TrEMBL record, chain A:
This is DUF4352 domain-containing protein. It comes from the Bacteria. Gene3D superfamilies: 2.60.40.1240. Keywords: Signal. It comes from Neorhizobium alkalisoli. Residues 1-29 form the signal peptide.
From TrEMBL, chain B:
It comes from Neorhizobium alkalisoli. This is DUF4352 domain-containing protein. It comes from the Bacteria.
Automatic annotation (TrEMBL), chain C:
It comes from the Bacteria. The lineage of its organism: Bacteria, Pseudomonadati, Pseudomonadota, Alphaproteobacteria, Hyphomicrobiales. This is Uncharacterized protein.
């Protein structure tokens, strides 16, 4: 009888222990997630493989683009955010495939394709080691999300065990305009 | 005195085995029958009226109208021998991240041979790329259907939901997975005069 | 009683065998992963020797051009930016087949910096700008689809954008899926 009870208790303890292990083990996705480096807008934020310096951030209701030498205007129910930045790659030639804004609510706004006609898009450039690369990033997000924004940049769209740089945007350093027209010289 | 006892014991064991076998087969048969029944008679899908907002887990969808067109909303041409079924809708990304997988949310139930839908942003008639979270947009979903496909007076649009898993089975990563139909909407196909229509009116 | 004692012995044997078996399984798995990893990286880079056959061919630097400082062409690029164009000749010593798959051709400066070539479209555009009449030469990955037959040779061209101060130290590093972790290195000797 005692033996039987001991067996039952042993099995229950083992099950509970396994449950604890399972609940406390970080998931594979979490273990192989990005390597974060955070910084402020006024600083150059450097990870192990690349660094970012925000040149300017402009918010506007209308985005002015040129397509085949024709001027087009793009409206949004929210706001456009155009960021110009300078990037340095430390070791290897790298694209900048991952670019998004985390808004005030925590939602993630990936850079928009609606501005694909804009010149100097960083998403179409490659950053070469030793050569600083400047360009712009364009986002579309609701006004209320724009009260607290973090720019998130990485080499791949969803980095795994790779660097991801977070730059917290300072509200006082974001310019507000009626229209923003990205040109070859920036914004 | 011994023999009947042994026989009795053996008989008992055999009977137990046969019973277990029958039980097993019964259970398997029941499960199979149930799954066949379920796939044959998918649970009654709620019918929604045009203009009502449907919560499809990942997307908030409001279907407005359906038309038939001979070009894409942005003016580009259709595949020869095809015409376009256009559905105007308002769609909102209810998730926490930009996404372009809204095509999975709509299906045409009474049309066969339709292409995957292409989506256009009504604001500027251009291709809709990512739908940004918490920014509902007026869009047009376009299906190319063969000319030979007869169209009924109304379009039967199924809105398909999605399932969010905090940790998927493979990588324990959060993600959205295809769900089941959440609503069905009968959209009358409006005449818009952009092309000759052969319509089967029943 | 005898049977149960034998059973107990087996049970203990199984329990004792478990840790070494687990360790062996881990080791075998680890070894496989290490092997796979070694095939991805260029861990063993050697300067190319004369008459060396690498991935079924003999490799030679045919030409290296430096553009952007006004010496090769009149073009002057802003700041440190320079364009380097290299041509490699490959003479097939045997049937190459699929051996040039997943070609990796980069420039290195010996200080841990790597430059990957410009993409195919930009590269052909530049070729046409430099010489509108000549047909652009294939890059490494296109060449890998149609490698030369045995005894024949072909030219491969790649273009790189990099800073001027790296130019004197540059070397080409070349490897294929079939050769990794081995790679060869050919110095450019640009000034």
């Amino acid at each position: 009888m005692i033996r039987f009870l001991a067996t039952i208790i042993g099995i229950l303890t083992a099950a509970a222990l396994l449950q604890v292990f399972q609940a406390t083990t970080p998931g594979y996705a979490q273990l192989t997630g990005p390597i974060l480096t955070s910084g402020a807008q006024k600083d150059t934020v450097s990870s192990q493989t690349f660094s970012v310096r925000i040149d300017k951030a402009v918010q506007a209701k209308t985005l002015v683009l040129k397509r085949f030498s024709r001027t087009i205007e793009r409206q949004t129910q929210g706001t456009w955010l155009v960021v110009s930045a300078e990037l340095w790659a430390f070791q290897e030639t790298m694209p900048l495939a991952g670019a998004s804004i985390r808004g005030a609510s925590g939602r993630l706004y990936v850079q928009t394709h609606r501005a694909d006609a804009a010149p100097q898009l960083l998403s179409l450039k490659k950053v070469q080691p030793g050569l600083p690369t400047t360009g712009i990033l364009v986002f579309e997000l609701p006004e209320e999300e724009a009260t607290d924004m973090t720019l998130i940049l990485s080499k791949q769209a969803s980095p795994r065990l790779e660097d991801e740089v977070h730059v917290h945007l300072d509200r006082g350093m974001i310019e507000s305009r009626d229209k923003v027209e990205p040109g070859n010289g920036g914004i | 005195m011994k023999r009947p006892n042994v026989l009795n014991k053996a008989g008992k064991a055999a009977r137990a085995r046969v019973l277990a076998g029958i039980g097993g087969f019964l259970a398997a048969g029941l499960s199979l029958g149930l799954s066949i029944f379920e796939s044959r008679n998918p649970g009654e899908i709620a019918h929604a009226l045009p203009g009502t907002r449907i919560n499809a887990d990942r997307w908030g969808v409001t279907l407005h109208a359906a038309t038939v067109a001979t070009t894409m909303p942005n003016g580009s041409r259709l595949t020869p021998g095809k015409r376009a079924v256009v559905v105007n809708l308002t769609i909102e990304n209810l998730t926490s991240q930009s996404s372009n997988l809204y095509g999975e949310a709509l299906a045409l139930a009474n049309i066969t041979g339709a292409s995957r839908p292409q989506f256009f942003l009504d604001r500027d008639q251009e291709i809709l790329w990512d739908l940004q979270p918490a920014m509902p947009e007026e869009v047009s979903a376009v299906w190319e259907v063969p000319m030979t496909q007869a169209l009924l007076a109304s379009l039967d649009v199924t809105v398909i939901g999605a399932v969010f898993k905090r940790a998927d089975n493979l990588y324990a990563a959060p993600g959205w997975f295809t769900g089941s139909a959440v609503a069905q909407v009968d959209l009358p196909i409006a005449e818009n005069g952009t092309g000759a229509m052969t319509r089967d009116t029943r | 009683m005898v049977a149960s004692r034998r059973e107990a012995a087996r049970w203990w044997m199984a329990l004792i065998a478990l840790p070494p078996l687990l360790a062996t399984a881990l080791a075998v798995n680890g070894w496989r992963n290490i092997e796979e990893l070694s095939r991805r990286g260029e861990w063993q880079v050697q300067p190319v020797a004369a008459d060396q056959v690498f991935a079924g061919a003999g490799w030679r630097l045919e030409q290296a051009r430096l553009i952007g400082d006004g010496r090769d062409t009149k073009q002057i690029f802003p700041g440190q930016m320079r364009l380097v164009i290299i041509r490699l000749s490959a003479e097939a010593k045997r049937d190459i087949g699929e051996d040039w798959g997943q070609c990796q051709l980069r420039l290195t400066d010996g200080k841990g910096h790597d430059w990957t070539p410009l993409d195919v479209i930009l590269s052909s555009d530049l070729s046409r700008d430099l010489d509108p009449r000549a047909e652009p030469l294939p890059g490494c990955s296109i060449a890998s689809l149609h490698p030369p037959a045995k005894g024949e040779s072909m030219l491969i061209e790649e273009k790189f954008v990099l800073p001027a101060d790296a130019v004197p130290h540059l070397a080409v590093r070349l490897s294929f899926a079939s050769t990794r972790p081995h790679a060869i290195s050919i110095p450019l000797a640009l000034k």
